[in-house]
Write a structure and sequence with these properties.
With about 70 residues, the chain is an alpha+beta fold. It has a domain at about 5-50. It has helices at about 5-20, 35-50; strands at about 25, 30-35. It has a two-stranded antiparallel ribbon with strand order 1-2. The longest helix has 18 residues, at about 5-20. It is elongated. The mean pLDDT is about 80.
Length: about 70
């Protein structure tokens, strides 16, 4: 698997952690957020769907079923 995608996935997880720990702040009556959590989560989902993972191992697709046709 592409190590660049794995590294990006790690960075997105760290960004998600930072947003969840409080990346919004208030000035007067306005609340500002530095990052969009939905965008980060979509990127994480896309990277995982593309085969990226945080432990760096490759993911292989396992064939779960096979079709057998008996012939005489």
């Amino acid at each position: 698997m592409n190590t660049l995608q794995n590294e990006r996935l790690k960075q997105y997880y760290e960004a998600e952690k930072a947003v969840l720990s409080g990346q919004s702040y208030t000035i007067g009556n306005r609340t500002l957020t530095r990052a969009n959590l939905a965008t980060i989560r979509n990127a994480i989902d896309d990277l995982i769907a593309g085969g990226a993972n945080i432990d760096g191992t490759t993911q292989t697709k396992v064939r779960r079923s096979a079709r057998v046709v008996f012939r005489d």
